[in-house]
């Protein structure tokens, strides 16, 4: 009896019951690890591009453009990390290297900039969709909300003189330019190195 049981166990078709699920699980695990790597690399690249680029353009940090592209191309948590990372680097450079005054007013404005930038992420995600028109609509809506939140802060703590039409238009133009740059960067990254950045593009090419 024992010999017959052993023979039966040897010839039992284990490939179907265990082998295939195991291979599927391994494949899924590999895909999840690859996706996580792609997402993390793009998060770092996006934040670094915004910070380094702003240093070359009179330190005008494109908070709205960054938040818009992050919300369009990353999961919510990663989008928050990208914006927070860029904001933290911007504040460090400002206070440590560019001579920002270390007082309550400057620190308060720094916090307000970060909070307003994070606040537009769910708005952009809610608008959703692909294509340049939807991207433009999301960006304009995000910029309007961002400016509105900062103006409310200025009404309470001072700084309304920085909301003249000329200054607002300059900020809008800067962020619009950066929106185009970061959109192009994402397309180049996903088309040129899909193994590193994945091949999911939020702008349809046709």
Overview of this structure, please?
Helix 3 (63-73) crosses helix 6 (132-157). By secondary structure, the chain is mainly α. It is globular and about 45 Å long. The chain is 80% helix and 0% strand.
SSE topology string: HHHHHHHH
Give the % helix: over 70%
Q: Determine the mean pLDDT.
A: 82
The percent range for strand residues is: under 5%
Specify the structural class: mainly alpha
Would you identify the regions where 5 or more consecutive residues have pLDDT less than 50?
1-17, 22-32
Radius of gyration over C-alpha positions, nearest whole angstrom: 24 Å
Counted by DSSP, the helix tally is 8
The beta-strand count equals: 0
Q: Could you tell me how far the N terminus lies from the C terminus, measured between alpha carbons in angstroms? A: 68 Å
Shape: globular
Biggest beta-sheet profile: none
């Amino acid at each position: 009896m024992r010999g017959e049981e052993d023979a039966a166990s040897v010839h039992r078709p284990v490939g179907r019951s265990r082998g295939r699920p195991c291979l599927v699980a391994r494949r899924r695990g590999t895909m999840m690890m690859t996706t996580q790597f792609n997402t993390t690399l793009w998060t770092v690249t996006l934040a670094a591009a915004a910070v380094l680029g702003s240093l070359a353009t009179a330190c005008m940090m494109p908070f709205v453009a960054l938040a818009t592209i992050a919300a369009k191309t990353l999961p919510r948590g990663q989008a928050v990390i990208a914006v927070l990372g860029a904001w933290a680097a911007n504040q460090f450079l400002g206070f440590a290297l560019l001579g920002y005054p270390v007082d309550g007013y400057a620190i308060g404005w720094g916090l307000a900039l970060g909070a307003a930038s994070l606040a537009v992420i769910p708005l952009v995600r809610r608008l959703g969709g692909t294509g340049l028109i939807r991207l433009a609509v999301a960006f304009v809506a995000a910029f309007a909300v961002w400016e509105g939140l900062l103006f409310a802060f200025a009404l309470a703590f001072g700084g309304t003189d920085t909301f003249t039409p000329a200054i607002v238009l300059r900020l809008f133009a800067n962020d619009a330019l950066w929106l185009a740059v970061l959109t192009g960067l994402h397309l180049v990254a996903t088309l040129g190195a899909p193994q590193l950045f994945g091949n999911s593009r939020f702008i349809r090419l046709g």
